Amino acid sequence: MSDNDSLPAADADAFRQKCRDFLQQHATGLSRAERANDRGASMMAAAKEFQNALADANLAGLTYEKAYGGAGLTKAHDLIWREEYANFPDMTGELTISHGMCLPVLNQFGSEEQKKRFLPDNIAGRTVWCQMFSEPGAGSDVASLQTKAERDGDEWIINGQKVWTTLAHHSQYGIIIARTNPEAPKHAGISMFIMDMNLPGVDMRPIHQIDGGKHFNEIFFTDVRIPADWLVGELNNGWNQATAMLMYERVAIGTGSTSGVTHQNADRLIEEAKRRGLINDPNLRQQLMKIYSEETTKSLVSMRTRAEMKAGRTPGPGGSLGKLHGAIISRLLRTVIGEVFGPDLVANTEGDKAELWGTIMLTSFSANIAGGTDEIQKNIIGDRVLGLPREPMVDKDMPFKDLKVGTQR
């Protein structure tokens, strides 16, 4: 990966035109039927098709090395792509976890063999990856996880349960963290692994949601055997790697796939309010302006985060700012969507605009939980961004086996 900060003007213009030409041909948007279908199946198929075309055009994985399936270009190229992509419909939202979280973690911590084997298919969208952190007894306190990995010769045996795993039922692989040393304190005895989602003993159960989709899953692992060399990074150092992955997650959720100042939800709702003759309502105008302001602020925070990454810094706790802004926007959207569409949110036909906004409204509740609750983000911002005193941790140095967490009673 090259870290060049700038490109000659002629090269930048040529690359920008290449991106624009590709997007005009391929970023055609998703139909209402695709968006309404099971919140995943058709959207995932469209995302993979788009990503395959990106790879064929040498525009996938712009800053990743060619040896790992990337384009081997600079962060300046990546910025140009994001600026152009902001003018087109997002085609790869279903690959946010696969590309925004799993890919950079594998690139940072994976062995040479792992990167050569797994990164090219991930970058090209031939395989999709999921993240398996949360458990029924380890949500906000992920370090309390009980899923265990035990070494048996040339294999690891995985037993346990994960929950709220996004798009696992559309994924071929995943990143999982498991306990490898229960004698150590809870943060010290965790390791990270690659998981083949089709192995014997992996029982995937999609969770039926309020919006009618099945976006999340609970997964049970019963004596699942994976190769010993699928350990990612150092043994028992998985918490540091998991923390890095959470940072990538918050950057991916908080910054999205584009660059520049955007306020797409506000723009679309303002247009709909005009169409329905509601735009002169002062209360609605005030609420629309709040969304516009929050989306603008989120864009500016995202631009700063991307600039830090372009300067060579790994994602830090500041990514929680963008994630928190996204959750605030989702909360504001619920009220405004209800006021703009009214009874049409309930009395509509399948696939029409009101139904899609109704789905957005119902789905928005997960934004305040997924990727870390609002309360967790505020704690991170207070502690690691503002430097406020940390909350006391009475279990910090206790062996995990002695803690009363999850089913350990």
From TrEMBL:
Query: Known SUPFAM superfamilies for this protein?
Result: Acyl-CoA dehydrogenase C-terminal domain-like, Acyl-CoA dehydrogenase NM domain-like
Kindly list the cofactors needed: FAD
Q: Which residues form the Acyl-CoA oxidase/dehydrogenase middle domain?
A: 130-224
**One matching Pfam family, short form?**
Acyl-CoA_dh_1
Q: Where is the Acyl-CoA dehydrogenase/oxidase C-terminal domain?
A: 236-386
| Ranges for domain Acyl-CoA dehydrogenase/oxidase N-terminal | 11-125
One annotated GO molecular function is: flavin adenine dinucleotide binding
Q: What keywords does the record list, in alphabetical order?
A: FAD, Flavoprotein, Oxidoreductase
Name the GO cellular-component terms: plasma membrane
The entry's family comment says: Belongs to the acyl-CoA dehydrogenase family.
State the PANTHER family in the record: ACYL-COA DEHYDROGENASE, ACYL-COA DEHYDROGENASE FADE34
Entry protein name: Unannotated protein
Q: Which organism is it from?
A: freshwater metagenome
